[in-house]
Amino acid sequence: MRRILLWMARNRWLKEHLPRLWFARRAVRKFMPGETIEAALNAAEEFRPLGIGILLTRLGENLSDLSQAQEVADHYHRVIDLVRARGLDAEVSLKLTQIGLDLDADATYRHLGSLAAHAAEANGTLWIDMEGSAYVDRTLELYRRLKVEHANAGICLQAYLRRTPADVHELLPLQPQVRLVKGAYDEPAEIAFRRRAEVDAAYLSLCVLMLPAAGRGELRLGLGTHDTRLVEQVAAHARAAGQALDTFEVQMLYGIRMDQQRRLAAEGYVVRDLIAYGEAWYAWYMRRLAERPANVWFALRQLVG
Ligand code: FDA
User: Fold this and answer.
1) Which of 8, 82, 245, 272 is most buried by a 10 A CB count?
2) Is position 38 within any domain?
3) What does the alpha-carbon distance between residue 244 and residue 211 come to, in Å, rounded to a whole number?
């Protein structure tokens, strides 16, 4: 089921036709409050009294020309201004292919640099998502460049990739900001762990590798996972090392395990909720279904209820 859903995520015909179906539009509302930035910001306000911070991402991936990259960058500049005007604790997270990585790496870097500088004025991090394995080298290369010039740059790393411990070692001297996720793409066994137990073990051991630097304030560690068992294992490691709970933070997606997000925040964990918005939600939504095929039944139930 997971592989079929990930194939569907990449299929062009479905990408064009499925989002027009009303029941798909209704089902996606579980995971996103709306298609506009205003809808996302209004949803963000609801997390403020809970002490839960926000990550904002406009959905959209590969572009066909560079003017679209400029439009995306302009949009994110506006988002940073809107967040500041509302006094929200919200940071931007984007995909490099959204700002032109397939077309021109230097132009992509220029957008990144100006967004990171703007985000720094608002005391926020500019996060870079990690995409499929074909992009990992280029994404890390641009991240390393960016981090030297902008302390407030963050990167997502995927625990399922066998290379990630080596990437962490390479990034540590830069005092990086890292969001560790399990990984959402369909990667071959030569480069990625495919069994859940292996991915979970890799995730925990990467956290154990990064915790000492996080404890010294030399790395910001975000656990981008809904796996509360893993979060609690990481917390136990931190406690055993005499580290406070705010040595790391937990980042989850809007609409997923909201009860756990509230519980963790109430127990003193630093929590951020990632709110996605935008019209190009199809591939992203299919990856959410692939993570938990039970969600397919939820989507189908929208047909009748
Ligand atoms: P796992 O899949 O083991 O789920 C643990 C539990 O959480 C499940 O048992 C279920 O209860 C619940 N759950 C998980 N997913 C669910 C869903 N879709 N619907 C309902 N319940 C669900 N990936 C990537 O490759 N690049 C990236 O840049 C990012 N960015 C990112 C940011 C943030 C903040 C998060 C939370 C995740 C990402 N991801 C990502 C996605 C990540 O790689 C991964 O696919 C998902 O987080 C699902 O894996 P979990 O770690 O949640 O564990």
Assistant:
1) 272
2) yes
3) 11
